[in-house]
Every structure is written in C-alpha cells, then in structure tokens.
From TrEMBL:
Pfam families, per the entry: MgtC, MgtC_SapB_C
Residues of the MgtC-like C-terminal domain: 156-232
This protein's record includes keyword Nucleus: no
Domain MgtC/SapB/SrpB/YhiD N-terminal: 20-140
Protein name: Protein MgtC
Positions of transmembrane segments: 12-30, 42-59, 71-88
Record's keyword annotation contains Cell membrane: yes
Subcellular location as annotated: Cell inner membrane; Cell membrane
PANTHER family in UniProt: PROTEIN MGTC
Natural source organism: Aquamicrobium lusatiense
Cellular-component GO terms for this entry: plasma membrane
C-alpha cells in the first residue's frame, strides 16, 4: 500500500507541527476578526492558514524546496480570488479591503509554517495583530482630522444652469472667471435640460482649490442674466 510505503515518522511529525502552528496562529488572527464581526472571521482565517501550509508542505515533500517556492507563488495569487469575495462596494464606499488583506496575511502565515519557518510565522502573526489592533486608535484619530480642501488634490467641476440663449456667453464667462482665478479648465460639457435650459459643466485640471475662491466664482455667475443656478463639487482621488 503506497500510503504505508511513503509514511515517514519524522516527515509526518514535521507536517503535524506545521499544520498545528498554522491552526494556532490562524486562530489568533481569526479571533480578532471574529470579535469585530468581519465577513471573514475565525474559521475562514484558520482554514486559509492551514490550507496554505498544506499546499506548501505537500509541494516541499513531493519535489523539494524549488517546488515549494512555486506553490507559494500560486498561493499568493490564488488567495486574491478568495479575498475578492469579501470586498463589497456600496455607492462610493468600498468595504472589506482590510479583511481581504488579513486573509492574504493568514495565507502568508500558513506558507511560513508549511516550510518549517514557525518562528517567522509567529513573528508575522504578531505584526498582523498589531496592524489590526494597535493602529486602530491612530486611524480613528486621523479620520477625525478635518480635511483641508486647499491641500487635497482632487477633480473639481463647476456647474452653471442657464437659458439656452445665454449659453454661449455664460460658457465663455465661466472659463474666463475660472482661469482668472488661476484654475485652468480641462473640459467643458453642455447638456440640454429641457424647458429652454442647459447645464454647462467645466472640469478643472486636477488641483487643490480654495473653497472661498470657487464660491466667489459661482456667486458671480449666479448673478448673471439668464443663470438660474451655479455650483461646484469635487471628488478626491487617491
């Protein structure tokens, strides 16, 4: 029987240690995720760590270190598909990125134990836990800092609603006032809104703005004949 012929007590003991270490370290990471009620909790992180350890250990026992390295590369790419399953987009917000990154780290922990690097896997686990716990107060503190639009690079749009007859003059005036305020325009779009009205949207070159300066431009345009509304908006790009 091949199972008995290939059984080696020393190799089996090494595999047991690798799986046990992956299980314990994956549990430590998973407990923190489960406590915070994340999509990928305790069992998922444990299974990812143990599975990665199993694949790497198998490759190493069958074909040596070279094959283990190749298996690790497949684990790195394969875990990305699993991580994508916990990422959700809700409107302009994306949730689950941290959970996906934690799964990726759990796979790295398993890969370390699968190659017998239990001490390194333990060190990595400590860093993962530190990233998910010790950095949380710092993240909350940063999130409470008000955003200064003058130091934030973003894409801004200035919109003017005017009558169809006043459109050519308002379009030129919009570009003129923005460039006079040192805000170059990259594009101007005109959309028919019906009822003899059109919307003129000027997109600024990606830059930082002073809200008071933009407000001054929109206030001036709003006072012009044929203009019913003027506003501006911006979207930050990381």
């Amino acid at each position: 029987m091949k199972a008995l012929a290939t059984f080696e007590l020393t190799a089996f003991a090494d595999t047991f240690v690798a799986f046990a270490a992956a299980f314990i370290l994956g549990t430590l990471i998973g407990v923190e995720r489960q406590y915070r009620q994340r999509t990928a909790g305790l069992r998922t992180n444990v299974l990812v760590a143990v599975g990665a350890a199993a694949f790497v250990d198998l490759g190493q026992r069958v074909a040596g270190d070279a094959e283990a390295v190749r298996v690790i590369s497949y684990v790195v790419s394969g875990i990305g598909f699993l991580g994508a399953g916990v990422i959700m987009k809700e409107g302009m917000n994306v949730r689950g990125l941290n959970t996906a990154a934690t799964l990726w780290c759990s796979a790295a922990v398993g890969a370390c134990t699968g190659t017998g690097m239990v001490a390194e896997a333990t060190l990595l686990t400590c860093f993962v836990l530190a990233g998910n716990t010790l950095l949380r107060p710092l993240v909350n503190m940063i999130n409470r800092i008000p955003i200064d639009d003058r130091s934030t690079e973003a894409t801004y749009e200035v919109s003017v609603i005017s009558s169809r007859e006043a459109m050519p003059q308002m379009r030129d005036l919009l570009v003129e006032r923005l460039e006079a305020a040192d805000y170059p325009v990259s594009d101007v779009e005109i959309t028919d809104r019906g009822n003899n009205t059109v919307e003129i949207v000027a997109t600024l070159v990606s830059t930082a703005v002073d809200p008071h300066e933009i407000e001054a431009v929109t206030s001036y345009l709003e006072q012009q004949k044929g203009v019913s509304d003027a506003s501006w908006d911006g979207s930050t790009r990381d």
